[in-house]
Every structure is written in C-alpha cells, then in structure tokens.
Amino acid sequence: MSGAIPAQKAPYAVTAEAGKTYFWCACGRSATQPFCDGSHKTTALTPVMFTAEKSGEVWLCGCKATKDKPFCDGTHNKL
C-alpha cells in the first residue's frame, strides 16, 4: 500500500502550542491520529511538519485529501 487512506471523514480539533513543532500524519495509517507514529514507512508518503504560529485550536485534516496540508479545507465534505 502506498496511497493515503482517510483516517476519518472529518477534521481533528487540536489545541496547538505556539512555537511547538508537530508532525501531521499524511498516510492515514498512524494509531496516534492526527499525528505521525512512523506507520508511513510502508508507503512513499512522509509526514508534514508544521510549527504552530500561535496557541489555540487548529483543525487538522482527517481525510488526508486536503489541498492545505495539514489543515482541513473542507474536502472531506466531497468524499
């Protein structure tokens, strides 16, 4: 398996901490969604690193089809 699979058809609400770096799961296989646990190693996909600009809630993509990785852009509504 090499393509991304939807972890869920809704975004994940996550409380981010300003200045902290996160690794969003791009493959959909991580047991620690929406964050990477290394499960992508059986695929050609890699996690997306991002650093929170400010503290607060962010909506991370759960369907893995967003065009604004790692953030939800509503694509799950079309799946």
Description:
The structure is a single chain. Helices cover 0% and strands 23% of the residues. It has 79 residues and is an all-beta fold. The protein has one domain. A two-stranded antiparallel sheet has the order 1-4. Strands 2-3 form a two-stranded antiparallel ribbon. The mean pLDDT is 95.
Give me some keywords for this one.
two-stranded antiparallel sheet; 79 residues; mainly beta
Brief summary:
The chain is mainly beta. Helix content is 0%, strand content 23%.
- Share of β-strand residues: 15-25%
- Give the rounded overall mean pLDDT: 95
Count of extended strands: 4
By DSSP (H or I, 4+ residues per run), the number of helices equals 0
- Helix coverage percent: under 10%
Rg calc = 12 Å
Query: What is the straight-line distance between the termini?
Result: 20 Å
Report strand order across the widest sheet. 1-4
Overall spatial form: globular
Give the uncertain stretches in residue-range form.
none
Estimated structural class = mainly beta
Element pattern in H and E:
EEEE
Q: Outline the biggest β-sheet.
A: 2 strands, antiparallel
How many domains is the backbone divided into? Answer: 1
